[in-house]
Each structure stands twice: as structure tokens, then as C-alpha cells.
Amino acid sequence: MTDPSNVELIHPLKLFDIAKNEKRLLYTSAPMVRYSKLAFRQTVYAYGTDLCWTPMILAKEFNRNRFARDSDFTISTNGPQPPTIVQFGANVPQELARASSLVAPFSNGVDLNCGCPQSWACAETLGAALMEKRELVRDMAVETREQLRRDGWGVDKEKDISNPKGKSVSVKIRVHKDIRKTIDFITTVLGPEQDRHIDWLTIHPRTRSTRSSTPINLEALEILTSTFGTRVPILLSGDVFALETLPFTSPTLLTGTPTPTITTTTAPRNTIITTTSSSKHPPHNQNPPPSPVASLPHLSGLMSARAILCNPALFAGHPACPWPAVETFLNNVVRCPLPFKLVQHHVSEMCGPGMGPDKSALLTKPERAALMACGNMLDLMDFLDAVRGVRRDGFTL
């Protein structure tokens, strides 16, 4: 760990308020195993993402192993440190509370993973297995909040929204086949009306066994946001592939406005937007899909995983990954190193066709194969330089 005084923090609920005042949804990047590391978080933050998640960290190992702490959680003390939520996998209240206490000085909040469907996690009663243990999830949230309070952090939700020591506690969930079980789960985890246990909720509207190729359950999401969205901010995780093709309506989805012209420098957060909109973020859903099947007036934000991995500039309004985003990522990697194979995979994802309707790619399929054949960072940088040099459009790394 390092000196927390160098880390600029803001309460996540304040970010929700800022987005609401700008009449838009909050933009977040998902906790992705291996991929949500610091260099990637810095990149998506430079391109309009408001709040970033770390990959899921196993609380028990994090508490006991210094090497786990050094490898699993990395922050920047030389800018930028994006607003960051640390997600934990845990099934013991004291373990989650202790791990949260360790990261509190360096993060904006902590999140409990109740959504990972992988068999190893469920076998350890982690991730989606916790969807069958609502009282345990409630107890973990309560114990964590009390531990942070004892440590001197502001955990009174909206009361601490402007408190420099304010921290959040949140939960990310999936849904059950029987939506009534999910309603019971959320009711238990939220707790009393006058003092809820969590700051917000992220809902991935698929069951533990639903494949990612199956569309999200919009009917379940509509029911849950209408039931709980006035009590607690709710983020949607799942099928956030492009801002212009979201399959639902909401007052925070602006329509009928001109397409913005966006240019981004490699300096983090230096996004320049030319548009008739007064918001620093481009209006989205400009070309909404015909006949949306759900209305979500109480949805507060979007969380993207696969799509933002392919296109880190998703929330800046780019329909496909632009070359400057690749440059930004590689510049961040120089300052915040990652294993070469991970860098190579990131760049391959960014240079291929994305998850949205725009399937243009920065590299052809043979070029991506050549990229994956590079053996080290120098080879990779030289390869990209050569490709861009041939195309003569001024890209340099």
C-alpha cells in the first residue's frame, strides 16, 4: 500500500447525483477477472467512465497474504486515480469487514460479489451462490459498514455524500428464476426503510445458469427497478453494448439530439466534446431501437463489461474503439505495468470488432493474428507503429 493522502476520493453517491443533475445515467466499468486493472481503469476513465470496479478479490486471501494485497489491488499516486470500487468475494462477515478496512484509505467504496457464476466460486459459497443466502449477505454488509464506522469513515450514505471520509458499501447480484425470490433477497439486504444497509445495488438480470449469449431478462429488471429504484440507486450490468441501442426507455436516455463530435487526447480525462448538449457526456440513445420492450424510469446507471473491454471509449460516444484509446492504454501500461500476455489480449480486443452494431475494426483478422504472435512489448509496439505507418494517418506510439 502507499500514502492514502495522495489519493483523491469522492463519495460514489455524489457521482450518482452529478449524473442525475446532468439528466443522464451514471457510466461504470464492470469488475472483470484479470482485465479491470489500473491501466485499463485509467483508460476508460479518460473516456467518460465515471466509476470503475477492480476485479473480484478474495477477501480471505487478501487479509492473510501480503503478496495477494500487492498483486490484487493497485492504485495510482501520480494521477489519475479513477474513482474506484474494490469488489470482494467473501462469505464471512468478519473477512469482508477486515478486507474493506484495509482498502478503505485507497478506494471510494467496497462491493460484495453475489453474481459470479463460475463453478469454483459457487463451490466455495462465493459469487452467485450467495443469492441463496440473503441473511448472510445482509450480515456481511452490516458488519462491513460497522467496521468502517469504527475506523472513522463516513458510512451514513447520503448524510456523508460531501464528507471527505465518506465511503460506500454496495452489492452486485444476479436474479432468480422466480423473481419473487430476488425481491425477497433485495428486501432483506436493503434492510429498514429509514436506514438501508447498502448505498446502491448492481443488478445483472440473468440467473446463475443463464448463458451470456442469452439476452438479459428485461421483465425482471423492470420489476426490480420499479420496486426498489426509488429507495436505492440501481445499476444495470449486462448487454450494455452501445449507448444508441439500449433496449429500454428512460427519462435519462436523451433522444433526438445531434450526434456529438468527440476528440480525445491521451491525457487522462481530457475529453473534448463539441455538441449542442450542455453535458460533458454525449447524449445517448440517439437512434433508439424500434419498440423498446421495457421502461426503466428508476434506473440510475449502466455497467459495461465485454463491450467496454473492446471499446474503452464506449461512454465517450465512440461507436467503435478509436486508435487514440489504444495509445492511451499503452501509455498507461508504461506507468502501471501489466503482464505482457494481458497487454496483448487487451490490445487485440480493442483492435477487433466490438460488441455494438458498429463492427469496424482497427486491425484486420490477419493483422490481429500477427499481433498475437509478438513475443514482447517492443515487438508489439513496433508492429503497431508499422501498421499505422503504412496507413499514414499520424498514429505514433
What does this structure look like?
- This protein is an alpha/beta fold.
- The protein has two domains: 4-256 and 278-316, TIM Barrel, CATH 3.20.20; 325-331 and 338-391, no CATH class.
- It has 14 helices and eleven strands.
- It has helices spanning 12-21, 38-46, 59-64, 66-72, 93-103, 119-123, 134-150, 179-190, 218-228, 306-310, 323-335, 340-351, 365-372, 377-391, and strands at 26-29, 51-53, 57-58, 84-89, 109-114, 168-173, 200-203, 234-237, 261-264, 271-274, 301-304.
- It has an eight-stranded parallel β-barrel, surrounded by five helices. It has a two-stranded antiparallel sheet with strand order 9-10.
- Strand 9 and strand 10 (271-274) form a beta hairpin.
- The radius of gyration is 20 Å and the shape is globular.
List the helices and strands and how they pair.
Elements (H helix, E strand, L loop, with lengths): L11 H10 L4 E4 L8 H9 L4 E3 L3 E2 H6 L1 H7 L11 E6 L3 H11 L5 E6 L4 H5 L10 H17 L17 E6 L5 H12 L9 E4 L14 H11 L5 E4 L23 E4 L6 E4 L26 E4 L1 H5 L12 H13 L4 H12 L13 H8 L4 H15 L6
Helix pairs in contact: 2-11, 5-7, 7-8, 8-9, 11-12, 13-14
Organism: Parathielavia hyrcaniae
GO molecular function, one term: tRNA dihydrouridine synthase activity
Protein name: FMN-linked oxidoreductase
